[in-house]
Write a structure and sequence with these properties.
The chain is mainly alpha-helical and 144 residues long. The chain contains 6 helices and 3 strands. Pfam families: MarR.
Length: 144
């Protein structure tokens, strides 16, 4: 029986994804944060002011759960809600100075962990991984 390369690619991708997720979860936890907290702060840290909806789509957290996480981060003064002057229904989130200070400390260390995972892999191969996974991801999204 011939090996099904598509199926094998799928299984390897899923196993690699789980392994990467575990490593990053452990790293984030080491810094005293939950993955959902870090994900939201990371979006605000890199992209600036965002709506709750934009963040929810970026970090793949449901809008019901994200409100709870945002409330906790706001109480810790790591982010702030800002009302939109043009549309009262829209609320933006911004990282606070305190949140930025924490991310200035944590993010470079987190990035180093990720760099180590990809150590020894050529830039060309990394780009191939990006291109292939984007293609597969787009095809999967079309099937939803």
């Amino acid at each position: 029986m011939a090996e099904n390369v598509s199926l094998k690619s799928f299984v390897i991708t899923m196993k690699a994804s789980r392994a990467l997720e575990e490593v990053t979860k452990k790293d984030i936890k080491k810094h005293g944060m939950r993955t959902s907290d870090f994900a939201i702060l990371e979006v605000l840290y890199h992209k600036g002011r965002q709506t709750i909806r934009d963040i929810s789509e970026s970090v793949l957290i449901s809008t019901g759960s994200i409100t709870y996480v945002i409330d906790k981060l706001e109480k810790k003064e790591l982010l702030a809600r800002v009302n939109c002057s043009d549309d009262r229904r829209v609320v933006y989130l911004e990282i606070t100075d305190k949140g930025k200070e924490i991310m200035d400390d944590i993010f470079p260390k987190h990035q180093q962990v990720i760099e180590e995972l990809f150590q020894g892999i050529s830039e060309k191969d990394k780009q191939t991984v990006i291109d292939v996974l984007k293609t597969v991801g787009h095809r999967a999204a079309e099937k939803e």
